[in-house]
Design a protein that fits this description.
Number of strands: 0
Structural class: mainly alpha
Radius of gyration: 25 Å
Number of helices: 19
Shape: globular
Order of helices and strands: HHHHHHHHHHHHHHHHHHH
Helix content: 55-70%
Strand content: under 5%
Length: 459
Amino acid sequence: MEDLNTGNPRQTAGERLTASSPQLDEGSQRTVAAICSPALAVARLTLPRVMDAEGRVDESRLRMHIFKNGGVCPSERGLAWRFLFGMYPCGSTALERSLLQDQLAVRYQVMKRKWQHFLPSAMRMRLNGTDAELLAAVRYFDQRQAQTQQQSQDRSEAVRVRMAFLELQAQILFERVTFDREELQEAIRIIDKDVPRTNRDLSYYQNEGLGNLLVLREILITYAAFHPEVSYAQGMNDLCSRFLEVLDCEVDTFWSFSCYMEKFSRDFRADGLHRKMELEAALLKELDPPLYAHLMKGNMERFTFCHRWLLLGFQREFEHSEALRLFEILRCDHLELISQQVDRARYQERVAQKFSTDGSESELQAINTDFTFELFICAAILLEHRESLLQCPDDFQLLQYTNGLQGTLDLNSILKKAEHHFYNYCKRCAWDFTNGRCRPDRSKHEDFFYHLRSLFVLK
């Protein structure tokens, strides 16, 4: 893609993260995730102009940096995600976050103990005696618990008094929370089936890291217990596993995952599934009507595979480290913010035209701001494989073909094409509105296309 101001070649979101960025060492010795990581509360992001001297983060700059640089370096990903997904308020100082970290840790422990006391039989996962890895995971998990208890006993008197006060506050906060026994037992039953199926080939679950499977289980049960309106649905284990791997901390994973689910829990319900497919179908109809007609065939069932892509953030379609990078790019919501700015710019064009002296008026084709960037990623994948998809005569072959794409897609290429489709979609709507005409007396700063171009250029 070319720079829209200068015509010079520019990098896409996929190409902006340099090949020299540090990567996770696949052969490193894994350990069970910490319960909490207070040191990170005062750690600093080294991203340019993102964090001030007191530790406050400029949220818009953080999101802009992530999108326009194709993600953050793996060494800074854990801290960046704590801001990106809402565990740390971007306006908080380092000192405020240090206090918040203690509060969140105590609240999580009180929440976890509450469901464990309610269902003591669920404290231990029912193990298949033939699964030696899970048996080892329990041993590693128990070792961490013993170490944590010893660390608690070694605290100073002042720290113990403060933590006791925070615990009393948490107990009062959750005192009136009640559980439905049957619903919670059913959620735990499904969690205990799904957690062992989590991808153990990841380096994060190797060696002593096997204990992280049990950490994942406790996070998911705690979430289901305190969010009965959502509870647990299949796929959440893979999603939460991604947070646990990056944050490497039980408490921080719970709160970050909970913040994420506040916005996206609907995706795990039937109405959310239908809406995702409906939006993807509507976008594809805009971009490629013939392919849309072929995939529809009179029903929405043929877009089911897209829902799996969208639900898990394309976790299986790209190589693992690339999927992590895409996940943070999608969650920075930069293009969604752009679409809103574009809509405002178009509104200004409409007002200006309404009061123009020539008296002409054009029909405005509205930009659908529900077309999020993840939908354009999905559309880019479909359009890249357009000819093969057109050859799929039925749902079975369609699913077989799309399943075969797992782990084979090139993220840089898909990002470039998705950006291109997004830009063309906005440009076409604007061109339809202005009927290909720009008033000669308008300066470039008032021109819609100038506004649109400026939104895509790195500041």
